[in-house]
């Protein structure tokens, strides 16, 4: 306890202002610097990306135009062979010879020649490689037979890996090399170039040629007849892709990693300084970004060379050749320009590094200046702090002397004036405190006098069930000495009730005292008053005799009703809890006497009810007995006898029901009862006990429905409702019975065309002994009993009526799994 007091009187000195000032100056100086660095880096990166992308786009477009020009020239050089007169004349003669062959004969000839070619028959191979057309092809391939104005490039001669001519059947008729197949009529390039005799150029994509053992692309041109009307043969040229494109593409390098590459529409490499010819781009998602039919650049998610870093890629299609490849294979050829991101963004990263170094030096300089400035501010603040502590203890004598010529000096002057005012104020404070103490004592005494004048016992408690105050009435009720010391005594030490009452009161107290119900209580306290219902004990109370059994206790042969309430406490103290109770012994005895008299009166009601309920079935028994006396038909007499038995059982059920025998034989016999059959049985019984000759009875049953009930009770309920309807119409009118089955349940409607029930009497229709009939016709218990039976099985009954418009009774039972058939 002493340690705690010492800690409160000498709190730990807090030294954080200087550090905060230094941090604030660093933040003020460094945040703009950091934001500027980040913005400069992002803007520089953006501009480098846009400038590089534009440059890559221009380079890709320029290189694509260059390669497109080379391929276009190659197409022109090769086209010279297809216009050679000697070649056209020889192919035309060959075509005319083939027209003399039948299809089967031509197939046999082709098979024999292909076997000779495959077996490397020297005579046959010499026939194809040394004939006039083959020698002419050799001259074109070597460059010795060309137009001097258009010499064949060296690249073309060195990259050519095959050159041959086929006839209209796809057979080779002249070739400069033998590592090719003999027949080609089924190959795509031959069909594309021949094009059903019309002819068109065909450029095949790069693929690996197993016979040549290299990645190649081919150029196929149709050879037209002299009038350019019909194809007489196809010229096919095979190129080594790497050797053809490498001189024009691999020489274009920039930086360490920057280069260009040629790919087709599927992403396969035709030529690249880094990737081998024939490989595909490593990222399939990159292909659609770099192979559109227009030039441009993109920030791709990868570089296509196996790297996963984002890259700037320029692209452009080959304008002329792509149209030919697009019509040939459905894919164009595209130029691809790339440089690694590390090399591309290296300048801006180096610049950012140097700026960061200078920024750190600036932050260090700011920290130094901040420490100097903070020292000049914190020192006078600490002087003011020490002076404020001494003023708080009333020990300050000398004035504060701070010479800073700013707000701190002005604050010191204000504290000196405050010290003088406090000294003058404390002088008159003691007299005011003494006066307030006297006023508080007066209020306590007057409150005690008021509570002592209350005739009801009042007890004030703290949260430990200890008594803080008892008025005079409570001491008298508990037979305590008036001048005895009871403060601090436990409530149940003076309120000596039985154990169950003590337990209940304890639980109620815990519910109130545990922060207004935060602590859970047992289910036995569920009847207690909620904290929101606690009232001022001096407030005018309602009739105490109406309280529930849970709000009373017995003590010294007396009955008390009680109520808990809360008392607002002073600041810093727990809320008080009060108990007020009243002696209700006389009122309880009077109430018990009234209950006994009411029970005796109910016996007369019960007797009248039994007579009313037995009257209907008894009349039926008498009527059926008279019918048996006059009946000669044994079967009809047997039916009447059965009905008498039913009426007898019904009377027995009524007697047992009114006498309260819960162990009745019928009450335990719950069976599946057909509702329509019960209604028909009730109608049959009514026809035997009432004159229904003038009644129009209408029944409408949707489909059979059943309930799991006591059949005698259900019959009794229906009989009361139907009897009331018949009696209301004075046995003359229309009685309608309907049954329907919906999702809500089983609905039974019984309507009559009687005079109806006045609106003012509808609310009393189910009250016992209330009736609108004439004296002697009914005792007013029929609908009361019917409602009790219907509600017993979970149903509900409703009466709808308008005066002079008839009455409708609606009965609804809940629909269970076995309620319909």
Any descriptors?
821 residues, 6-stranded antiparallel sheet, single chain, 5-stranded antiparallel sheet, alpha+beta
Description:
This protein has 821 residues and is an alpha+beta fold. Helices cover 48% and strands 18% of the residues. It has 22 helices and 23 strands. The longest helix has 66 residues, at 17-82. It is flat, with a radius of gyration of 58 Å. The two termini are 83 Å apart.
Helix-strand category: alpha+beta
| Beta fraction | 15-25%
How large, in whole angstroms, is the Cα Rg? 58 Å
| Gap between N and C termini | 83 Å
Q: Largest beta sheet, briefly?
A: 6 strands, antiparallel
Measured as a percent range, the helix fraction is 40-55%
How many DSSP helices?
22
Q: pLDDT below 50 for ≥5 consecutive residues: which ranges?
A: 1-10, 515-534, 545-550, 660-667
- By DSSP, the count of extended strands is 23
| Average pLDDT score | 79
């Amino acid at each position: 306890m002493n340690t705690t007091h010492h800690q409160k009187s000498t709190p730990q000195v807090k030294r954080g202002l200087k550090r905060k000032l230094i941090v604030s100056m660093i933040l003020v100086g460094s945040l703009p610097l950091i934001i500027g660095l980040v913005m400069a880096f992002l803007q520089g990166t953006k501009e480098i990306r846009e400038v590089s992308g534009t440059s890559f786009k221009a380079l890709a477009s320029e290189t694509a135009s260059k390669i497109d020009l080379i391929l276009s020239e190659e197409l022109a050089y090769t086209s010279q062979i297809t216009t050679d007169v000697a070649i056209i004349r020889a192919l035309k003669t060959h075509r005319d010879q083939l027209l003399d062959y039948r299809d089967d004969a031509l197939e046999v000839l082709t098979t024999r020649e292909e076997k000779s070619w495959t077996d490397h028959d020297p005579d046959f191979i010499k026939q194809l490689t040394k004939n006039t057309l083959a020698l002419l092809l050799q001259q074109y391939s070597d460059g010795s037979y060309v137009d001097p104005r258009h010499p064949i490039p060296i690249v073309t001669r060195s990259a050519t890996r095959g050159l041959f001519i086929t006839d209209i059947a796809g057979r080779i008729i002249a070739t400069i090399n033998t590592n090719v197949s003999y027949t080609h009529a089924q190959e795509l390039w031959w069909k594309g170039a021949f094009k059903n005799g019309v002819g068109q150029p065909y450029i095949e994509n790069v693929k690996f040629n197993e016979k040549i053992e290299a990645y190649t692309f081919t150029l196929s041109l149709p050879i037209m007849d002299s009038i350019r009307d019909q194809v007489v043969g196809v010229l096919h040229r095979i190129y080594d892709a790497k050797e053809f494109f490498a001189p024009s593409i691999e020489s274009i390098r920039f930086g360490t990693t920057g280069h260009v590459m040629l790919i087709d529409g599927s992403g396969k490499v035709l030529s690249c300084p880094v990737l081998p010819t024939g490989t595909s781009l490593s990222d399939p998602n990159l292909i659609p970004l770099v192979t559109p039919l227009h030039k441009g650049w993109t920030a791709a998610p990868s570089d296509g060379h196996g790297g996963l870093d984002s890259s700037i890629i320029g692209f452009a299609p080959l304008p002329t050749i792509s149209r030919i490849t697009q019509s040939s294979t459905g894919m164009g050829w595209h130029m691809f320009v790339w440089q690694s991101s590390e090399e591309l963004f290296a300048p801006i990263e180096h610049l950012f590094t140097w700026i960061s170094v200078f920024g750190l030096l600036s932050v260090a300089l700011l920290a130094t200046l901040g420490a100097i400035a903070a020292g000049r501010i914190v020192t006078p603040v600490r002087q003011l702090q020490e002076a404020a502590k001494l003023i708080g203890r009333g020990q300050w004598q000398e004035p504060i002397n701070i010479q800073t010529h700013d707000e701190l000096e002005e604050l010191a002057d204000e504290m000196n004036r405050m010290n003088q005012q406090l000294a003058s104020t404390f002088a008159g404070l003691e007299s005011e405190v003494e006066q307030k103490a006297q006023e508080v004592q007066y209020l306590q005494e007057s409150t005690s006098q008021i509570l002592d004048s209350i005739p009801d016992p009042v007890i004030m408690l703290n949260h430990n069930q200890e008594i803080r105050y008892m008025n005079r009435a409570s001491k008298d009720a508990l037979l305590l000495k008036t001048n005895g010391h009871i403060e601090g005594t436990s409530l149940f030490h003076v309120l000596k009730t039985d154990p169950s009452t003590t337990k209940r009161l304890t639980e109620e107290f815990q519910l109130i005292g545990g922060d207004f119900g935060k602590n859970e209580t047992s289910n036995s306290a569920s009847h207690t008053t909620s904290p929101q219902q606690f009232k001022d004990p001096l407030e005018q109370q309602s009739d105490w005799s109406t309280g529930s059994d849970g709000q009373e206790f017995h003590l010294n042969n007396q009955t008390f009703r009680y109520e808990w309430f809360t008392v607002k406490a002073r600041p810093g103290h727990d809320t008080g809890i009060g108990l007020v109770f009243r002696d209700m012994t006389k009122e309880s005895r009077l109430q018990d006497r009234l209950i006994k008299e009411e029970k005796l009166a109910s016996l007369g009601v019960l007797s009248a009810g039994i007579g009313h309920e037995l009257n209907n079935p008894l009349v039926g028994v008498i009527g059926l007995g008279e019918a048996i006396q006059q009946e000669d038909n044994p079967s009809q007499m047997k039916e009447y006898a059965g009905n008498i038995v039913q009426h007898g059982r019904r009377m027995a059920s009524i007697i047992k029901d009114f006498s309260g025998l819960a162990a009745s034989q019928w009450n335990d016999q719950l069976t599946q009862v057909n509702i329509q059959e019960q209604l028909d049985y009730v109608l049959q019984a009514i026809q035997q006990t009432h004159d229904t000759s003038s009644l129009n009875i209408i029944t409408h049953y949707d489909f059979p429905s059943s309930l799991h009930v006591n059949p005698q009770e259900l019959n009794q309920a229906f009989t009361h409702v139907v009897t009331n309807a018949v009696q209301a119409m004075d046995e003359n009118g229309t009685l309608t019975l309907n049954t329907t089955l919906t999702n809500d349940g089983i609905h039974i409607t019984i309507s009559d065309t009687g005079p109806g029930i006045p609106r003012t009497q509808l609310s009393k229709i189910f009250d016992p002994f209330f009736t609108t009939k004439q004296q002697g016709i009914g005792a007013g218990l029929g609908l009361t009993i019917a409602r009790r039976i219907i509600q017993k099985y979970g149903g509900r009954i409703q009466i709808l009526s308008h005066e002079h418009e008839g009455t409708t009774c609606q009965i609804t039972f809940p629909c269970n799994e076995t309620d319909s058939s």
